[in-house]
Amino acid sequence: MKGRVVITGGGTGGHLKVAKAFIDEFYKRGTPAIFIGSTSGQDRTWFENDRKLKKAIFLDTKGVVNKNILGKVSSLFKIAKEVNHCLNIFDTADVQTVISVGGFSAAPATFASILSYGCKLYIHEQNSKMGKLNELTSKFATEVFSSYLEKSKVKDYPVSSEFFDNARVREKIETIIFLGGSQGAVAINNYALSIAKKLDDLSINIIHQTGKNDFQRVKQEYEKLGINADVFDFTDDISKKMSKADFAISRSGASTLWELSANALPALFIPYPYAAKDHQYYNAKFLKDKKLCFICREKNLTSQVIDKILTCDVNSISRGLVDSINCDAIESLVDIIIENNQ
Ligand SMILES: CC(=O)N[C@H]1[C@@H](OP(=O)(O)OP(=O)(O)OC[C@H]2O[C@@H](n3ccc(=O)[nH]c3=O)[C@H](O)[C@@H]2O)O[C@H](CO)[C@@H](O)[C@@H]1O
């Protein structure tokens, strides 16, 4: 393969999980990549000490969306400055391939790839609706990959192998896992607490990821209820927790949704109501149209919802999930990129 590969993007766990899949695959093939992320968000925590990288670089990049005019101008100014920084990095390290996994962290390296002669840009869009940056830059990309795009050469999501390794077909609901995405979700936490007694009375075990900010409160509420739930704020071993469960009640961020599918774990998705273009709803609708999940809007959550879930046929959904997802997406994605750049 010609030149060095840069993987860029981040901000939240969903984008970073896909970046990690690319990083691991290029390392496996003996061509470790450079990661370019932001000093804001979670990028540094994920990759600062990743041995599988040639180098990790964190730039002073901030998001532009949901800011007032002054905030937008300041963010755009920072991005412009960092584009120049990236062009220097590309020159020094002979970068000829940039893979963007989206999020504001990807802006400088993505724009630099467009300005850099001979450099090819690849975009991996995780969600059903394109993010702003990908929308703006996709016309300059050699390939845009997405599970939701008809013309995408690879539609399977790059889920890490551990989710497939721990997959099993579910027979009945004995354990439920509550998941709020990388930051946790207060609405899901509250719903879990409101139905915890009912689940406990039915001898259903509870696993619950709360997010950092709500951990203490949720843990104390379970204690007050006298329920022995497995409560944690965030874990690096989420695939193990998923595999212990027979049903998930979860946000429908792209990474979680496909990980649950890879694990053959049926789910009720509660889309984040403020996600851009309502993309979390459409992420899940794709599965619902195939009768492979349930969706409930946050505002419609009631105790009747869980009653319906408890009588559903988890076995047929779980079997349907096993048949619907492949485990070799990351290999296929990297094969195409390498073939194009010989
Ligand atoms: C509020 C918002 O805009 N969220 C977006 C954000 O979601 P966010 O990053 O919250 O959600 P995702 O589901 O995509 O990713 C979360 C990731 O964190 C991991 N995890 C979670 C909990 C834990 O304890 N341990 C752990 O490792 C999950 O396994 C998953 O890989 O980026 C996603 C991908 O672009 C989008 O679909 C979401 O809409």
UniProtKB/TrEMBL annotation:
<keyword id="KW-0132">Cell division</keyword>
<dbReference type="GO" id="GO:0005975">
    <property type="term" value="P:carbohydrate metabolic process"/>
</dbReference>
<dbReference type="InterPro" id="IPR004276">
    <property type="entry name" value="GlycoTrans_28_N"/>
</dbReference>
<comment type="pathway">
    <text>Cell wall biogenesis; peptidoglycan biosynthesis.</text>
</comment>
<dbReference type="GO" id="GO:0050511">
    <property type="term" value="F:undecaprenyldiphospho-muramoylpentapeptide beta-N-acetylglucosaminyltransferase activity"/>
</dbReference>
<feature type="binding site">
    <location>
        <position position="280"/>
    </location>
    <ligand>
        <name>UDP-N-acetyl-alpha-D-glucosamine</name>
    </ligand>
</feature>
<dbReference type="Pfam" id="PF04101">
    <property type="entry name" value="Glyco_tran_28_C"/>
</dbReference>
<keyword id="KW-0573">Peptidoglycan synthesis</keyword>
<keyword id="KW-0808">Transferase</keyword>
<feature type="binding site">
    <location>
        <position position="127"/>
    </location>
    <ligand>
        <name>UDP-N-acetyl-alpha-D-glucosamine</name>
    </ligand>
</feature>
<dbReference type="GO" id="GO:0005886">
    <property type="term" value="C:plasma membrane"/>
</dbReference>
<dbReference type="InterPro" id="IPR006009">
    <property type="entry name" value="GlcNAc_MurG"/>
</dbReference>
<keyword id="KW-0328">Glycosyltransferase</keyword>
<feature type="domain" description="Glycosyl transferase family 28 C-terminal">
    <location>
        <begin position="175"/>
        <end position="313"/>
    </location>
</feature>
<dbReference type="InterPro" id="IPR007235">
    <property type="entry name" value="Glyco_trans_28_C"/>
</dbReference>
<dbReference type="GO" id="GO:0051301">
    <property type="term" value="P:cell division"/>
</dbReference>
<dbReference type="GO" id="GO:0071555">
    <property type="term" value="P:cell wall organization"/>
</dbReference>
<dbReference type="GO" id="GO:0008360">
    <property type="term" value="P:regulation of cell shape"/>
</dbReference>
<comment type="similarity">
    <text>Belongs to the glycosyltransferase 28 family. MurG subfamily.</text>
</comment>
<keyword id="KW-0131">Cell cycle</keyword>
<keyword id="KW-0472">Membrane</keyword>
<protein>
    <recommendedName>
        <fullName>UDP-N-acetylglucosamine--N-acetylmuramyl-(pentapeptide) pyrophosphoryl-undecaprenol N-acetylglucosamine transferase</fullName>
        <ecNumber>2.4.1.227</ecNumber>
    </recommendedName>
</protein>
<comment type="function">
    <text>Cell wall formation. Catalyzes the transfer of a GlcNAc subunit on undecaprenyl-pyrophosphoryl-MurNAc-pentapeptide (lipid intermediate I) to form undecaprenyl-pyrophosphoryl-MurNAc-(pentapeptide)GlcNAc (lipid intermediate II).</text>
</comment>
<keyword id="KW-0133">Cell shape</keyword>
<keyword id="KW-0961">Cell wall biogenesis/degradation</keyword>
<feature type="domain" description="Glycosyltransferase family 28 N-terminal">
    <location>
        <begin position="5"/>
        <end position="145"/>
    </location>
</feature>
<dbReference type="Pfam" id="PF03033">
    <property type="entry name" value="Glyco_transf_28"/>
</dbReference>
<feature type="binding site">
    <location>
        <begin position="12"/>
        <end position="14"/>
    </location>
    <ligand>
        <name>UDP-N-acetyl-alpha-D-glucosamine</name>
    </ligand>
</feature>
<dbReference type="GO" id="GO:0009252">
    <property type="term" value="P:peptidoglycan biosynthetic process"/>
</dbReference>
<keyword id="KW-1003">Cell membrane</keyword>
<feature type="binding site">
    <location>
        <position position="182"/>
    </location>
    <ligand>
        <name>UDP-N-acetyl-alpha-D-glucosamine</name>
    </ligand>
</feature>
